[in-house]
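Case study B.
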Amino acid sequence: MNQNRALTAKSLGEHKIIQIIQEHLTLMPNMPVPFGDDVSAINLNQKQVAVLKTDMLVAKTDVPQEMTLFQAARKALIMNISDFASKGVQPTAALVALGLPAGFTQKKIEEIADGLNAGAQEYDTYIIGGDTSEASDLIVSVSLYGIAEKSALMLRSGAKPGDILAVTGFFGKSAAGLRLLFGGCLASNNAKNLIDAVLVPKARLTEGLALGGCGLVTASMDSSDGLAWTLHELANFSNVGFELDTIPVAPEVKRFSELNSLDAAELALYGGEEYELVVTVKLEGWSAAVAAVQGVGGKLLPIGKATEGKQILLKTKSKRNTIEARGWEHFKSQV
Amino acid sequence: MNQNRALTAKSLGEHKIIQIIQEHLTLMPNMPVPFGDDVSAINLNQKQVAVLKTDMLVAKTDVPQEMTLFQAARKALIMNISDFASKGVQPTAALVALGLPAGFTQKKIEEIADGLNAGAQEYDTYIIGGDTSEASDLIVSVSLYGIAEKSALMLRSGAKPGDILAVTGFFGKSAAGLRLLFGGCLASNNAKNLIDAVLVPKARLTEGLALGGCGLVTASMDSSDGLAWTLHELANFSNVGFELDTIPVAPEVKRFSELNSLDAAELALYGGEEYELVVTVKLEGWSAAVAAVQGVGGKLLPIGKATEGKQILLKTKSKRNTIEARGWEHFKSQV
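Model:
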């Protein structure tokens, strides 16, 4: 056996595992969305595509002890809806395959069902089917379905040098919230906000639909693996680099970091488990894109621009730092 | 707490759990396929529906020790494709959410990817996306997508008294194969057939598409929970009963049962993990339906008829027995 083939999932990490699997699959001809983007799609007709996504929540790795079953089930929906949001697609329906430990009570099962339904209802979608199996961990495997105009899909691959880089909100809250939940950190007065970012995350669907509708976004991705990782992925798919003039650290994360002598930028860049959208917008369309997002009650914060050079740099008055390609990764990461 | 709500998944069983979950979900208006049928669907336009299915394979309960990872991954596809087959729908694409133990090697991951791809390719479909997470068990959660003419969908609900009850093959092989794999049974000369029924199951997609195409089937379901359970489900959904004049026991299961002093009919009726289609056909269309299935190289075996009375009876020259509503059920069943 080739020595490499003896490496374990833990040492390979999620990204390498996905690459290995892809290399063993026969590619569907004419895929409208390439492998590795936030969603998959299939041509329905000349104009429309069916959009599909599946993402699995595993209690052992994705659910802190303090999270209720209602919250965990809801989060499984949000993880998937966030990917749809990043492409500008309204989910029509969801299916859920559940793995349940044999000892789970009816009360727990009802909490899970209520959490699933709440997540779906918040984003105007429905759970229309699923499956239940016995498993050692609680597993909530969600599949989403929707329809989109092909021309309106916001892929990872369209950023051009000069485009404005923007985000739909501030970062670092989930990373700070997890540290509060795991103990050992002092709580600032906005601790509830930070903890809620972990327990009750929101998908930026309204913002994504507004951005998709305005036709001014050149590339988009959700930030569930962390801001830094997202920037590197967008850069790779689009064959550009990024120059940031600011790290969009949430104000409450700044206070939390000062109180606990932590690096706020580190939390915002590499924390992960956040569901903001990271997009690039045509320079000439910037005001209209901001207006579109504000029109639905959201924010669009400029944080830099796309560049010819392929690096991801933070350029402030005093320094010029490289943003590393790391983030939250299944198998490898530990909080 | 209500005393019932303290019951565990193990004592509730899969069917009751699914019912509990359904009762907590908001129903999508105008669902073209009701909750609980083999697949879910969404209206695309006046004539067509998008068809969706998700089913999860958990190594702990669904994979005998003798099954390779290639076979397990392939089986996860087959389980889902069989449900599409029973509705007469060609799957267009699949997504796969994988839960992998951290210690799995690259070699094992490649075997899984190859098995997934083989299952997809056998049935002219493609894996177009997915997700990977760390889990205690191997979990292979598959979602299938396809498009169908609404009028051609074979649901569970259309059987009418007088319709012919038929199956696409003989039963009992998986139940016998499992007994051989687990040891303690004598192997007949066709043992490989029985074991292959467990390790390399086939979905009756060609047969399902032929049956869907001929428009003569009034109700259809796959038999993955066992023939007896399937008959009861079809009866409940269609509000009919069935009178069987034969149990379609596979010849090799008869020999295996004689050799091991087992009840062949018991294996065929209650074994489960078989992927034949169980259908009802309009009396006047019987010859044409048989011809359609034979035309694609398949079998359509008549085993009885649908009745006004709601019982499921086996009526032979010498006796008249009730077929019980039991079969393979997650949480409750043990081989």
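The domain at 164-322 of chain A is CATH 3.90.650.10 (Phosphoribosyl-aminoimidazole Synthetase; Chain A, domain 2). The remaining cases will be described in the next quarterly update.
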